UniProtKB/TrEMBL annotation:
Metabolic or biological pathway: Protein modification; protein ubiquitination
Task of the protein: Substrate recognition component of a SCF (SKP1-CUL1-F-box protein) E3 ubiquitin-protein ligase complex. During mitosis, it mediates the ubiquitination and subsequent proteasomal degradation of AURKA, causing mitotic arrest. It also regulates mitochondrial function by mediating the ubiquitination and proteasomal degradation of the apoptosis inhibitor BIRC5.
The protein's name in its UniProt record: F-box/LRR-repeat protein 7
Residues covered by the F-box domain: 69-115
GO cellular component assignments: centrosome; SCF ubiquitin ligase complex
InterPro entries in the cross-refs: F-box-like_dom_sf, F-box_dom, FBXL15_LRR, Leu-rich_rpt_Cys-con_subtyp, LRR_dom_sf
Region named Disordered: 1-38
Pfam families: DUF7885, F-box-like
Family: Belongs to the FBXL7 family.
Bias-annotated ranges (Polar residues): 1-13
UniProt xrefs under PROSITE patterns: FBOX (PS50181)
Any one Gene Ontology BP term: cell division
C-alpha cells in the first residue's frame, strides 16, 4: 500500500453534509442530490473506511462479480483523482466511503485545496470543524493545503466557523461567505489577521460587517513585519448596509493593495468615503458604487484620480451624478472599458459625447433609464467607440431607430443590445441584425422575432 493508506482510519460521513432524513441521504446511501436541497438538522459523523475484504463467501462472490462489471476500477489512480477533482465537498466525502482504494484517493491532499459548502440548513460550523480536523491530521492543528473556502448562502455560519478557519488554515487565499448574515467584524478580523496570504474576500450580504481590519493583537505583533497591511486584492462588500465612511477609511488604510472593490448598495457611503479610498488605494482597476445615493460629481472627481488604471466603473442609480462627473471620468480615465451608468438621469448627450471622444476603447456601456440621452449621443458613440460590444439603452425614451442604425453601421462587433421599452421600429431592429450578425437583441417589440 502507498503512504496514503497509512492515514488514520476515519472519514467524515456524507451525513456531515446531508441530514439522515433528507432526500440526499436515505437508507444509509447518498444520492446525487446537491447539498443545497437539504432539509432539517445536519449531523456530523465520523466513519471508518470500508473493510479491505468481505468474509462471507456469498458476499465475496457478489463483490467479485460487481468488480468485473465496474470499468471505473480499471482506471489508474491519477485518472481517478482527476475525476474526483470535479466533485463538490459533500460528494467527495461520499466517495471516501465506497472502498479502501477510493478512501485513499478521496483524501489525496491535491483534492482538498478547496472546500465548498452550500445550503441554508447545513450545520456549517460543525462541518468545517470536522473537515479541518481531518485535514490537519498529517500536520497537527494546521491545514497547509487548503487555499479556498466557499460557504456562500450558508446562513447558519457563525463566528465559530470563521474562528475554525482562521485557526487552522494559515495558507488560505480565498474566502467567500456571501449571504452569511450571522458573522461579525471580530471573526472577519481574526481571519485576515491569521491568514496573511488572503487575497480574495467576499462578505456581500453580511450586514453585520462594517469594516475590514486586523485584530489589535495582530496589529501590534505584525506591525514590524508588514506595517499593518492586509494583502487583500479583491473585496466584495455588496449589501453591507451598515458600512460608513469611517469604516471605508479603515479598510483603505489597511488594504492598500486593493484592485477590485465592490460597494453596491452600501447606502451610507458618501463622497468623503471615496476621498479616503483614493488616498490609500491607488491601484484599483474595478470599482462599483451602484445604488450609493449620496455619491455625487465630487465623488467622481475623486475616482478620476485613478486615471488610466481604472477599467471598470459602476455608478448605476447614483442620481446625483451628472455630465460633470462623467467629464471627470472621461478626461482622466482614458482606458476605461466598462461603464454602468443606468438610472443616472442627469446624464445627457453632452456627457456621452465627452465619454465617447476620450474613452475610445470602451467595450461595454449601460446608459439605460437616462431619458436625456438621444440619437445624438448614440452618433458620437458610433463614430468613436468602434470596439463597443455591449450596449444597454433600456427605457431611454429619446432613442429612435435612426440612432440604432448608426450604431449598427459602425460597431460591427456589437454582441448585445438592450432596447427594451424603447420606441424603435422593426425595420431598425432588422437593420441591426443584418449588420451585427452575432448581436443578441433584447427588446419588447412583439413584431420582431
Amino acid at each position: 500500500d502507498s503512504d496514503l493508506s497509512m492515514r488514520t482510519l476515519s472519514t467524515p460521513s456524507p451525513a456531515l453534509i446531508f441530514p439522515p432524513n433528507s432526500p440526499g441521504f436515505q437508507n444509509g446511501r447518498g444520492s446525487s442530490t446537491s447539498s443545497s436541497s437539504v432539509t432539517g438538522e445536519t449531523v456530523a459523523m465520523v466513519h471508518s473506511p470500508p473493510p479491505t475484504r468481505l468474509t462471507h463467501p456469498l458476499i465475496r462472490l457478489a463483490s467479485k462479480h460487481q468488480k468485473e462489471q465496474a470499468n471505473i476500477d480499471r482506471l489508474p489512480d491519477q485518472a481517478m483523482i482527476q475525476i474526483f477533482s470535479f466533485l463538490p465537498t459533500n460528494q467527495l466525502c461520499r466517495c471516501a466511503r465506497v472502498c479502501r482504494r477510493w478512501y485513499n484517493l478521496a483524501w489525496d491532499p491535491r483534492l482538498w485545496r478547496t472546500i465548498r459548502l452550500t445550503g441554508e440548513t447545513i450545520n456549517v460550523d460543525r462541518a468545517l470543524k470536522v473537515l479541518t480536523r481531518r485535514l490537519c491530521q498529517d500536520t497537527p492543528n494546521v491545514c497547509l493545503m487548503l487555499e479556498t473556502v466557499i460557504v456562500s448562502g450558508c446562513r447558519r455560519l457563525t463566528d465559530r466557523g470563521l474562528y475554525t478557519i482562521a485557526q487552522c488554515c494559515p495558507e488560505l487565499r480565498r474566502l467567500e461567505v456571501s449571504g452569511c448574515y450571522n458573522i461579525s467584524n471580530e471573526a472577519v478580523f481574526d481571519v485576515v489577521s491569521l491568514c496573511p496570504n488572503l487575497e480574495h474576500l467576499d462578505v456581500s450580504g453580511c450586514s453585520k460587517v462594517t469594516c475590514i481590519s486586523l485584530t489589535r493583537e495582530a496589529s501590534i505583533k505584525l506591525s514590524p513585519l508588514h506595517g499593518k497591511q492586509i494583502s487583500i486584492r479583491y473585496l466584495d462588500m455588496t449589501d453591507c448596509f451598515v458600512l460608513e465612511d469611517e469604516g471605508l477609511h479603515t479598510i483603505a488604510a489597511h488594504c492598500t493593495q486593493l484592485t477590485h472593490l465592490y460597494l453596491r448598495r452600501c447606502v451610507r457611503i458618501t463622497d468623503e468615503g471615496l476621498r479616503y479610498l483614493m488616498i490609500y488605494c491607488t491601484s484599483i482597476k474595478e470599482l462599483s458604487v451602484s445604488d450609493c445615493r449620496f455619491v455625487s460629481d465630487f465623488g467622481m472627481r475623486e475616482i478620476a484620480k485613478l486615471e488610466s488604471r481604472l477599467r471598470y466603473l459602476s455608478i448605476a442609480h447614483c442620481g446625483r451624478i451628472t455630465d460633470v462627473g462623467i467629464r471627470y471620468i472621461a478626461k482622466y480615465c482614458s482606458k476605461l472599458r466598462y461603464l454602468n451608468a443606468r438610472g443616472c438621469e442627469g446624464i445627457t448627450d453632452h456627457g456621452v459625447e465627452y465619454l465617447a471622444k476620450n474613452c475610445t476603447k470602451l467595450k461595454s456601456l449601460d446608459i439605460g433609464k437616462c431619458p436625456l440621452v438621444s440619437d445624438t449621443g448614440l452618433e458620437f458613440l458610433a463614430l468613436n467607440c468602434f470596439n463597443l460590444k455591449r450596449l444597454s439603452l433600456k427605457s431611454c425614451e429619446s432613442i429612435t431607430g435612426q440612432g440604432l442604425q448608426i450604431v449598427a453601421a459602425n460597431c460591427f462587433d456589437l454582441q448585445m443590445l438592450n432596447v427594451q421599452d424603447c420606441e424603435v421600429s422593426v425595420d431598425a431592429l432588422r437593420f441591426v441584425k443584418r449588420h451585427c450578425k452575432r448581436c443578441i437583441i433584447e427588446h419588447t417589440n412583439p413584431a420582431f422575432f
